[in-house]
Amino acid sequence: MSNKTPMTQQAAARIQSSTATQNGGTVAKGSFAAKAQSAAAKNSGNGKQGGK
Q1: Phi and psi of 24, rounded to 5°?
Q2: DSSP per-residue letters across the chain
Q3: Phi/psi at 46 (5° precision)
Q4: pLDDT tens profile 29-49
Q5: pLDDT at res. 1
Q6: In whole angstroms, what is the distance from residue 1 CA to residue 18 CA?
Q7: Segment among 3-12, 20-29, 30-39, 42-51 with least mean pLDDT
Q8: For residue 37, how many other CB atoms are within 10 A of its CB?
Q9: 21 burial class (0-12, 13-18, 19+ CB within 10 angstroms)?
């Protein structure tokens, strides 16, 4: 049994910052950092829901 911790905005920001630092300031579409940001937005209730 695994325990899952939801992605937070703060954790996603750290991941994105680190990725951007390593890649000359860019974060590629579809990268782990981009997916982390998307998951954090959904977990905080700010993600797109039903096309709204």
Answers
A1: 65, 30
A2: -----PPPHHHHHHHHHHHHHHTTT---TTSHHHHHHHHHHHHTT-S--TT-
A3: -100, 5
A4: 999 999 999 999 999 886 555
A5: 64
A6: 30
A7: 42-51
A8: 18
A9: exposed
Tokens of 48: 């797109």
Rounded to two decimals, the pTM is 0.75
> Cβ neighbours of residue 13 under 8 Å, at least 6 residues apart?
none
Q: Which residue has the tokens 């390593």?
A: 22
User: CA-to-CA distance for 22 and 16, rounded, in angstroms?
Assistant: 10
